Amino acid sequence: MNNSKPLAIQARDLTKSYGDNAVLGGVDIEVPEGTIFSLLGPNGAGKTTTVNILTTLIPANGGEAFVNGANVAHDADAVRKSIGVTGQFAAVDGLLTGRENLHLMGRLHHLGKRETKRRTEELLERFDLVEAAKRAPATYSGGMKRRLDIAMCLMGDPKVIFLDEPTTGLDPSGRRVVWSIVRELVKAGTTIFLTTQYLEEADELADKIAVLNGGKIVAEGTPEQLKRLVPGGHVNLRLARADQVARIAQVLAGNGDTDQLTVQIPSDGSVDSLRKILDTIDREGVQVDELTVHTPDLDDVFLSLTGHVPAQATA
Ligand SMILES: Nc1ncnc2c1ncn2[C@@H]1O[C@H](COP(=O)(O)OP(=O)(O)OP(=O)(O)O)[C@@H](O)[C@H]1O
């Protein structure tokens, strides 16, 4: 996937330990430009540690990583200039107003007074914060704080944005607003590195997901590829004639339901397995009115890979 695109983020064999606690045990990551990569894992899996290394906040013990072509260990300044980071603990100053927070970021990025003002007003508008701009973020809702946090990180016009659990604690509507912001950023060419405990979020947004567990990437792929990793998928056929149900169920090793005219066949949903089913249908000369593929959801994948029940997005 996206093999032709240059890599915005590349990490090879990253390791990190705190004393005897090996937090990262050799992590490889490749994120093509203009895509959304999601690092998914239970509490304590090492997600924030990975983000902290890639954003130059802490050094790795081994391996190497590049962001926008710059080495995070040897060229930290270049990395910092090209990234934006929003975190579980927002960099928002609670005493300044929303507008003043954005001005401060503009000055930190040496934008100049006029450009700082222009971008501030543009971002306030874009993130629906114009009304709130005069107030201190301490008075904002969780969703507004998150939007201001993302707006602040955009003042520097970053090519890569790290979103560390951007919707934790938000209600469903706040979460959807953040998702649509993320989608718009990617449409404009930004690369997103997203950590989340919410499978639904990774499923909605990510081009590629890596599941981190115990400091190791235990599976990687598109949401669809990951769903094929666990058993539980099946193909449902709806036949035109009841008298053919039993025969098709038998030759495809499925379960037939004569009343419903359906046959359910265990399948990983891959092209190969579908081809086999279609070939058999052809050979048997059976008319199929409908074929649907059911893949397991990411909850099943996460549980089978990590042994953890995934975090629930609660309102
Ligand atoms: N400064 C530190 N000193 C010692 N141990 C640390 C330090 N920072 C992180 N750890 C340990 O590293 C492990 C991974 O932590 P990390 O914060 O990267 O996990 P995470 O996947 O981001 O989890 P969460 O979803 O809870 O934020 C944990 O066991 C944590 O206790």
What this model shows, in words?
The protein has 315 residues and is of the alpha/beta class. It folds into two domains: 7-225, P-loop containing nucleotide triphosphate hydrolases (Rossmann fold); 234-295, Alpha-Beta Plaits (2-Layer Sandwich). Helices cover 35% and strands 27% of the residues. It is built from eleven helices and 14 strands. The protein has helices spanning 47-54, 76-82, 98-108, 113-126, 142-154, 172-187, 199-205, 223-227, 245-251, 271-284, 298-306; strands at 7-18, 21-32, 36-40, 62-67, 70-71, 83-86, 160-164, 191-196, 208-213, 216-221, 234-239, 255-257, 262-266, 288-294. The strands form three sheets. It has a six-stranded mixed β-sheet with strand order 6-7-8-3-9-10, sandwiched between helices. A hairpin with a 2-residue loop joins strand 4 (62-67) and strand 5. Helix 5 (142-154) packs parallel to helix 6. It is elongated, with a radius of gyration of 24 Å. The chain starts with 6 loop residues before the first strand and ends in a 9-residue tail after the last helix. The model has no long low-confidence stretch (mean pLDDT 89). The protein binds adenosine-5'-triphosphate. The site of adenosine-5'-triphosphate has 12 residues, from strand 2 and helix 1. Residues 18, 21, 23, 41, 43-49, 197 line the site of adenosine-5'-triphosphate. Keywords: Antibiotic resistance, ATP-binding, Cell membrane, Membrane, Nucleotide-binding, Translocase, Transport. This is ABC-2 type transport system ATP-binding protein. It is a peripheral membrane protein.
